[in-house]
Design goal:
There is one protein chain. By secondary structure, the chain is mainly beta. The chain contains three helices and 15 strands. It has a 15-stranded antiparallel beta sheet that branches. A hairpin with a 6-residue loop joins strand 12 and strand 13. The protein is globular and about 50 Å long. The protein starts with a helix and ends with a strand.
Length: about 270
């Protein structure tokens, strides 16, 4: 379940480019000090229950001598969800402060009875994207591998930072964007579809926003699945305010609870 919940916060667009520098993008959407809090709800026997929370924070730091944005996502289920599926995830991404090119990613995940760790290190030799991949399995086994791609590859966190800076003004309903995202095991066959615009009211703050709506799909085992449908503010910040998740054992939703330290005025807010 939390593989999907991790994805839900970070995937809503990707525009490819070429060569090393173009694996980044100019940041106009967020700044250090931003914090987004969410309530998580799960549909259990036709009843929606609040089952946990999620927090995403962005700060500034250094990595291998260069300034970076440090983005973290922490999701926590409560006892109601633990009876169905235990959820304790922490994701961390370090991206260049200059252009948001990914440099390092880590995910520590408690999903049901399993606990595992994924790590990725990025380098860019010869204009390619090279990944050093490390997984610690539930049995404690350490698995290392390296792969190199001619195009830019992202992880569940760095794609979120990049995607918040995309320009959706030229997108049309039904447009599809390929989205290569890797973990420490493999590259996913996934894409995004733009569904148009809608409005959403945040119950905790009573604020109403004009939103862009997207669906994230994955093709696996010969079948295509819609994993997440999400609503992001139609302004410079592109903050996710609602996420609908379609899981193998039910449905879940995430709703924005509070926000602070946003970079630009929320012009999508409706009076």
């Amino acid at each position: 379940m939390n593989y999907r919940i991790g994805l839900l916060f970070i995937i809503f667009s990707l525009f490819f480019s070429h060569a090393v520098a173009q694996c980044g993008i100019e940041n106009t959407a967020f700044k250090a000090g931003e914090k987004l809090d969410y309530d998580l709800h799960f549909n259990w026997k036709f009843v929606w229950l609040k089952v946990g929370s999620a927090t995403m924070q962005t700060t500034q730091s250094t990595f291998e001598g260069q300034p970076v944005y440090k983005a973290s996502l922490v999701t926590r289920g409560n006892s109601k969800l633990d009876n169905v599926f235990m959820m304790r995830d922490t994701l961390l991404s370090l991206c260049s402060a200059k252009d948001l090119a990914p440099l390092y990613f880590r995910k520590g995940a408690r999903e049901g009875k399993r606990y595992y760790v994924d790590e990725l290190w990025y380098t860019y030799p010869r204009g390619n994207c090279h990944l050093k991949m490390h997984r610690i399995t539930d049995e404690g086994e350490h698995i290392w591998q390296e792969k190199e791609y001619a195009s830019c590859i992202y992880d569940m966190m760095s794609i979120f930072l990049r995607a918040r800076n995309f320009d959706a003004s030229k997108m049309k309903k039904g447009d599809i964007v390929p989205m290569p995202i890797s973990d420490a095991k493999s590259l996913s066959n996934s894409w995004l579809e733009y569904r148009g615009k809608d409005t959403f009211k945040v119950s905790s703050t009573k604020e109403k926003f004009r939103c862009l709506v997207f669906s994230f799909y994955e093709h696996e085992n010969g079948k295509t699945h819609e994993l997440i449908r999400f609503y992001v503010t139609d302004d410079q910040n592109h903050i996710p305010v609602r996420l609908d998740m379609f899981l193998s054992f039910g449905s879940a939703k995430a709703f924005l609870k509070s926000y602070e330290g946003v970079r630009s005025e929320l012009t999508s807010k409706l009076k």
